[in-house]
Amino acid sequence: MIMRISNNFIFFTLFLTFTYNAESQTDIGAVKFETLVASSKDWEGHKLPEMRPGQQELTIVRVTIPPGKQMPVHKHPVLNGVYIEKGTLTIVLPGQKETLTLGEGKAFIEVTNKWHYGRNDGKDPVIIVLFYSGPEGEPTTIFKNPDEKLQ
Fold this sequence. Notes:
mainly beta; 4-stranded antiparallel β-sheet; 1 helix
């Protein structure tokens, strides 16, 4: 019994010592953890929708947008985050004045179920990595006009 308590105490102490805090930067030995973004709200400041029940699926996609081009208007029915690997990306919500422009190394939480598009106003390709989380089999992206090509 005493050994069991001691092992639990040691485990708990180690857990507290090595717990990763999502709000900060943590170094453990030579390994560095840096949170790029963590929030319960999207970039517009709206609360994220609750996850729907069922088996969840995580999808990670890399997208390259050539210079001067934009993605088709689309929306995401699932939660998603974006990391800008290269270039500068501008996100536009059609019919609204507010846009979001972020550069290389930045991350943001995308809007859910709102029509929008990303564009590359620069001279170099924009490379983004998208992280989607939602019920298994749910589409990650719905295009407003499915026949629309990258402009």
